[in-house]
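Hello,

I think I submitted the flavin mononucleotide job twice by accident. Can you confirm which output corresponds to this input? Input:
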Amino acid sequence: MAALKILVIPGSLRTGSLNAKLAAVAAYQIAQAGAEVTRISLADFPLPIYDGDLQARSGVPKNAVNLKRMIGAHHGVLIVTPEYNASVPPLVKNTIDWVTRVQEAQETRGQVFRGRAFAIAAASQSRLGGSRSLAALRSILSACQALVIPNQLALPFAGEAYDDMDKLRHPADIEALDALVRQLIEISQRLT
Ligand SMILES: Cc1cc2nc3c(=O)[nH]c(=O)nc-3n(C[C@H](O)[C@H](O)[C@H](O)COP(=O)(O)O)c2cc1C
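Support: Only one job matched these inputs. Its output is below.
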């Protein structure tokens, strides 16, 4: 059987991003668990803020189509998002919004989300670890009819969570991330 493919999407473009670090560790653990992993940066898929007039004028931007195809080429997706003002950052919401507008031949709009397994994680300096962002992201993806797996990871005090090699310092965090990626792989496998 072909290898199970998992796509990892960090929801921050910032140099030294705590979420990009978590995404990198997750990608490593996914590979260790036997799946094929692709980790992207949304910097490679720049998109304007969604505007219906822009879409009416110029259609859905090519980067949204490319990202939709990238998602479609994977069995499961992990989004690692920061928390901004108790919700998801505009980068994450705007990207999802554009991808839901993609409709290619033989497809219904937003089809790439439906029935596909998504896992969600967040890293934050705060005690809550970005858990309010996860609640918002779960709600958004569920509205897109994605299958958001029950496990999720909110990494608190993330400024102190990594060592000099950007690996997770604490065994409990490594285990929690491992549980998340294993459930994502298992559920993605079941959906294939
Ligand atoms: C506009 C803005 C709002 C923020 N709101 C929150 C928040 O509600 N909760 C939280 O835990 N951190 C909040 N933060 C801090 C971010 O969690 C922190 O900047 C984090 O490092 C961003 O993720 P990154 O390191 O992956 O870029 C906010 C940061 C910004 C810029």
